[in-house]
Amino acid sequence: MSSYIALSERICLRLMAAQDWPIFLRLNQDQQLNQYIREVDTADVLLERFKQRCKGLDIDCGEWISLVVESVSGDFIGLMGICLIDEALQQWEVGYLIAQDQQGKGYATEALQLLLPWAIAHFAVHKVVARCVATNLGSARVLQKCGFKQEGLLRHNHRIFGEWLDECYFGLLAEDEVIAEQSR
Fold first, then answer.
1. Containing H/E element for 95?
2. Alpha-carbon torsion, ordered 65, 70, 76, 82, to 10 deg
3. pLDDT per residue over 137-172, tens digit each?
4. Where is the N-acetyltransferase domain (predicted)?
5. Which of 174, 78, 163, 79 is nearest to 122 (CA)?
6. How many CB atoms lie within 10 A of CB 149?
7. CA-angle at 16, arms to 12 and 17, nearest 5°
8. Which residues contact 41 (CB under 8 A, 6 or more apart)?
9. What is the pLDDT of residues 89-140, one digit of tens each?
10. CA–CA separation, 12 vs 7, rounded Å?
11. Count of domains in the chain?
12. Which contiguous run of DSSP H or E holds residue 127?
């Protein structure tokens, strides 16, 4: 139970571990699920990424704290992570990948609402950022529900399957999240 970092009435977040390789592989090789993120990598490339992401909380700048999102009964929902992108500016980036059969149930929003106060309580966080391609309206909606503000639109900033896509940048100041958490 010690690998759980946060839980609500419906879901829990736990550190990704070696036994999660099959679900990591399945989600990261699902072309439809990754249509807004990246082209699907080979199993060998994904295995190296998986090993890098199973470091627990002992990370360096540029590395991810990777989490599994599960129902309280243990059913798999998705993956989520937070990455220190600039230590001096105390900026972190969040990302999430929810299994197709679990989308539209509010799990990404709920998981992000669990992750943010935990991260702010455990690390030096001034700002959390997120990005998504402009056509990924579901992800943008999740971020907005969690208090993120769109701070910019970068034209042709992301390339997937040979196509240049616009990318939205979102930000949330730690002080805003603390105020929001107190009102929940």
1. strand 91-98
2. -20
3. 999 999 999 999 999 999 999 898 899 999 999 999
4. 11-175
5. 174
6. 12
7. 125
8. 28, 29, 49
9. 999 999 999 999 999 999 999 999 999 999 999 999 999 999 999 999 999 9
10. 4
11. 1
12. strand 127-133
Residue 17 has pLDDT above 70, yes or no: yes
- Dist CA 84 CA 24 (whole Å): 21
Tokens of 181: 């958490």
CATH number of the domain that residue 76 is part of:
3.40.630.30
Burial class (CB in 10 A: 0-12, 13-18, 19+), 123: middle
Distance CA 69, CA 77 (A): 5
Query: Tokens at residue 167, please?
Result: 């990318």
3-state SS of 79-121 is EEEEEEEECCCCEEEEEEEECHHHCCCCHHHHHHHHHHHHHHH
Distance CA 37, CA 35 (A): 6
Given pLDDT bands bounded at 50, 70 and 90, which one contains residue 1? very low
Residue 50: predicted pLDDT: 96
